[in-house]
Design a protein that fits this description.
About 70% of the residues lie in helices and about 5% in strands. By secondary structure, the protein is mainly alpha-helical. Helix 17 packs antiparallel against helix 18. The radius of gyration is 24 Å and the shape is globular. The chain starts with a helix and ends with a helix.
Length: about 425
C-alpha cells in the first residue's frame, strides 16, 4: 500500500487528483467545525453522551465524524444521500418504469436516475433536519431568544444545504479525484474519531494500570477483524464457463474458457447499516417518548442485551439475502450465457444452469451474512462480558471497521489500476 502511494505521488496526473481529494477533505473538516446558528452546541454534546448512546442518531453521529452532536453545518453528513440511493435502488426493482430507465435508458437514463436521487436526497435531508430541530427544541438546547419563525427556518435550511453540499463534494471527488467520493467522505468521518478514542483509552490506562491487558486484547481483536475483512473482501467463488466454437464467414469464434466471479460479500456493509438502524428503533423512540423508557419492550430490546444481539444477527442475515437477490439474478445470467453460446460444464443451458447458480449464490450469501453478523456482534459481545471494554472509549463498531477497510482497499485498487494503465500507455507510445 505504501509503495503504491509513493509511486502514485510521482505521477503528475495522479498527484493532482490526490491533492484535489485532500483539498475536498480539508473543506469537509472545516465545515464540521462550523456550528449551526441558534443551537447550544455544549448542551447538545452533553445530551448525546448521556442519552443517545444506543440510538439511530448515534450511528448517524459516527458516520458524520461527531458533527451531529456538535450541530455543525454538515451534521447530517451524506446519510440522506445514502438513504436516497438505497430507496431508488429498491424502487427500480418494484417500479417497471424505473427498471426500464436503468437497464435500457443508456447514459440518459443513468443521468435521470441520478437527478431523481439528488432531489430525493434534498427531501430526505429536509425531513431529517426537521426531526433533529424538533429534538433540539424539545430538550431546550436552543440559545436564549431563539424564538419565532426565523430560527427553525435557518436551522433546517442549514442542515439541508450542508447535506446537499456534501453530496456535490462527493460527486466532484468521484469525477476529478481518486475513489468513490461518498465512500471517501464516510472514511474521513469515521477515521476522524480515532484520535479521540485512542486518547480516551490512554487516559483510562493511566488511571487504572491493572487493566492494560484488556485494552491490548481489544486492539489485537480489532487487528484480527481487519485481517478477516481484507481476506473476505478479496474472496470470490469462480464458476467455470465454457464458450462453444462457432464459424462466422471464414473465421472461427469462441472456444475459450473463462469464469463467472461471485464475491463472497456481495452486499457490502449495507445489511449492517440497515439492521443496526432497525434494531435501534426502540432506543430511538425512548428519546422522543421518555415515559416509555421503563417499559417491558424497551427493557427486552436493550442494545446491550442478548435479545437485541439475536434480533440484530437475524436482521443482518435477512438483509444480506435481500440485497444479494437484488444485485444478482441467476435467471438473467443463465439467459445471457445461453445467448452468447456459453455454458457451465456439467449443466445444460437454461433452467439447470440458473438452478446451479442459485444454489451457489445461496451458499455464498450465507457465508457472507454470517461473516458480517459475527463482525457486527463481536464488539457488543465484548462489551456485554467486559464492562471495562464497554467504557474504554475505543470505537470498535463493526460497521465502522468494515467501511474503513473496504474504502481503503477500493482506493488502493483504483490507484493501482491507474498506475497500470499509465504504464501500458507509456509502453505503447
Amino acid at each position: 500500500m505504501i509503495a503504491t502511494l509513493r509511486n502514485a505521488w510521482r505521477v503528475d496526473e495522479i498527484r493532482k487528483k490526490l491533492l484535489f481529494v485532500l483539498f475536498m477533505v480539508l473543506l469537509y473538516r472545516l465545515g464540521n467545525a462550523i456550528t449551526v446558528p441558534y443551537v447550544n452546541a455544549e448542551m447538545l454534546s452533553a445530551y448525546f453522551q448521556q442519552q443517545m448512546r444506543d440510538t439511530v442518531l448515534m450511528l448517524i453521529n459516527t458516520m458524520s465524524g461527531s458533527a451531529l452532536e456538535r450541530a455543525s453545518i454538515f451534521a447530517l453528513s451524506i446519510q440522506p444521500y445514502i438513504n436516497a440511493s438505497i430507496i431508488i435502488q429498491l424502487l427500480t426493482v418494484a417500479i417497471p418504469a424505473l427498471e426500464r430507465l436503468q437497464k435500457d435508458g443508456g447514459e440518459d437514463g443513468k443521468k435521470k436516475i441520478e437527478k431523481i436521487t439528488r432531489y430525493s436526497t434534498i427531501g430526505i435531508a429536509a425531513l431529517q433536519g426537521y426531526g433533529y430541530y424538533v429534538l433540539i427544541n424539545q430538550n431546550g438546547m436552543l440559545d436564549p431568544g431563539a424564538t419565532g419563525f426565523w430560527p427553525p427556518v435557518v436551522i433546517i435550511a442549514t442542515f439541508m444545504t450542508g447535506s446537499a453540499l456534501l453530496m456535490w463534494m462527493g460527486e466532484q471527488i468521484t469525477e476529478f479525484g481518486i475513489g468513490n467520493g461518498i465512500s471517501v467522505i464516510l472514511f474521513v468521518s469515521i477515521v476522524s474519531r480515532f484520535p479521540t478514542s485512542i486518547w480516551t483509552m490512554a487516559t483510562k490506562v493511566v488511571d487504572k494500570p491493572s487493566s492494560w491487558w484488556i485494552y491490548v486484547l481489544m486492539l489485537l481483536g480489532a487487528l484480527a477483524i481487519i485481517v478477516l475483512i481484507v481476506i473476505v473482501n478479496n474472496s470470490e467463488r469462480r464458476i467455470p464457463v465454457q464458450y462453444s466454437k462457432r464459424v462466422v464467414g471464414r473465421k472461427m469464434y469462441g472456444g475459450q474458457s473463462t469464469h463467472l466471479p461471485m464475491k463472497v460479500n456481495m452486499s457490502g456493509v449495507l445489511p449492517v447499516i440497515f439492521a443496526q438502524s432497525i434494531a435501534s428503533i426502540p432506543a430511538t423512540i425512548v428519546v422522543f417518548v421518555p415515559k416509555w423508557k421503563d417499559g417491558w419492550l424497551m427493557n427486552l430490546l436493550d442494545t446491550s442485551g442478548i435479545p437485541y444481539m439475536i434480533i440484530y444477527f437475524l436482521l443482518i442475515v435477512f438483509f444480506s439475502y435481500f440485497y444479494s437477490t437484488i444485485q444478482f439474478n441467476p435467471i438473467e445470467i443463465a439467459n445471457n450465457l445461453k445467448k452468447n453460446g456459453g455454458f457451465i460444464p456439467g449443466f445444460r443451458a437454461g433452467k439447470p444452469t440458473s438452478e446451479f447458480i442459485k444454489n451457489v449464490l445461496t451458499k455464498i450469501t450465507l457465508f457472507g451474512a454470517l461473516y458480517l453478523a459475527i463482525i457486527a456482534i463481536s464488539p457488543i459481545l465484548i462489551s456485554y462480558f467486559s464492562p471495562t471494554a464497554k467504557d474504554s472509549g475505543i470505537s470498535l463498531g463493526g460497521t465502522s471497521i468494515i467501511i474503513v477497510v473496504s474504502v481503503a482497499l477500493e482506493t488502493i485498487t483504483q490507484l493501482e489500476s491507474q498506475l497500470l494503465m499509465r504504464h501500458y500507455k507509456g509502453f505503447l507510445e
